[in-house]
Design brief:
Elements: H1 2-25, H2 29-61, H3 76-98, H4 100-110, H5 115-159, E1 164-166, E2 173-175, H6 178-208
Antiparallel strand pairs: 1-2
């Protein structure tokens, strides 16, 4: 499941960070500093991934798309907060990958890596990142589509409380207003499509990468 995937990924990132730090101890000069910069970059990424995975776990537990479990209108506000938290965590991760090379360069500069070593390290980073990072950003775009659609569904439930019913605990909503019903079905379709697109993007990432440390 998603939880075991995230735990595996975080473990791999942690192991990568430690191996980079250990390698740095066995090096000297510019090589050691460049390796420390890579470890620092990985540590920043690991923190964002941990935050994102926690937000995903909360989102899953909130059962946003199981309206039959709702008992009262007041339950919707905490659900909105969970979705917003997920969108915020997703946006921070997306931004990190959008500016991946800048973030890596910032770590090289912070540790005052000599330019010859810094340039070589950056070339090594971009060789893979230029292939992978844009696809990870696309993944995050699909998360954003899903999260925003969930917020719209919550708003529809809230604004029309008493004018819809769910078929069974986990079933779909039936709105009295046919226009609202059409809007709701369109939002569900948008969420399903984003999930399908994500699966395709994930396959492309795995094709381009020898690692599986991506969500």
């Amino acid at each position: 499941g998603t939880n075991s995937n995230s735990q595996t990924r975080e473990k791999k990132l942690s192991q990568l960070q430690k191996s980079l730090e250990n390698a740095a101890q066995n090096m000297t000069g510019g090589d050691a500093l460049a390796m420390k910069a890579s470890a620092a970059y990985t540590e920043r990424l690991s923190g964002l991934m941990t935050n994102y995975d926690a937000a995903v776990a909360q989102l899953t537990a909130a059962n946003i798309l199981k309206p039959g479990l709702l008992k009262q209108k007041e339950e919707l506000a905490p659900k909105r907060e969970v979705v917003q938290n997920f969108l915020n965590a997703n946006d921070k991760l997306k931004s990190f990958f959008q500016h991946g090379a800048d973030n890596y360069r910032a770590e090289l500069d912070r540790l005052q890596v000599p330019e010859t070593y810094a340039a070589a390290a950056l070339r090594g980073y971009t060789r893979k990142a230029d292939l992978i990072n844009p696809l990870i950003v696309e993944m995050r775009d699909q998360d954003e589509i899903m999260g925003k659609a969930m917020l719209q569904i919550i708003a529809m439930q809230e604004n029309n409380w008493g004018h819809w019913e769910a078929s069974g605990a986990t079933g779909k909503i039936h709105f009295e207003d046919t226009a609202l019903a059409a809007d709701y079905n369109a939002l569900l379709k948008k969420i399903r499509q984003a999930g399908s697109d994500q699966a395709m993007i994930k396959r492309r990432i795995l094709e381009r990468s020898n690692t599986s440390e991506v969500q």
